[in-house]
Amino acid sequence: MDRLLHHELRFSLTAVVAMVVSVVVVGPVRGFPSVNVSYLSTFAGALALWVLLTLLRATRIPWFGEVRDFDAATPVDPETALPTEDFWHDRPVNLGFLPVLLVPALGLALAWEAWMCLMPLVWGLEVAAKAARVAHWERENGRVLWRGRVEGRPWELSYSPVGHGAPARTTTDAPPS
Prior knowledge:
Elements (H helix, E strand, L loop, with lengths): L1 E2 H27 L6 H21 L9 H5 L2 E2 L11 H4 L7 H14 L7 H23 L1 E5 L9 E5 L16
Parallel strand pairs: 2-4
Antiparallel strand pairs: 1-3, 3-4
Helix pairs in contact: 1-5, 1-6
């Protein structure tokens, strides 16, 4: 099992790493052309559309919203041992998926247009937005979403209650009064 928030953050960071590597490779080889001012309005329109679609996904509207999928998650059995992975130290980047993002970005940027090296960032922003939606849902509902409870269906979601941390201690390591 994998915590859904960590899964989305891991893939978002993988996309950022792929973009940085492709920029570092493409920059010295091809250089970057100047930005045409007419492209800025197209970019602003695309960004506004993306924000609108992201906000729609944060709703319960059929065919758009993902929150209904989060609400439909099944509870994890109390006997199930949940992973205690430390996200930032164990594996913050999915090295197996890095070439899937890096090879097309490098190929298109070197063969066609240098700005194509930013292509992984588009996917990374979408996954980061889903991570924000998951974090908001978890905080709002007091549950942690998990994926991959059933081995053959990794997309199936389940939830567990948020565990309460250790009780607070004072500087002398005595329990609070």
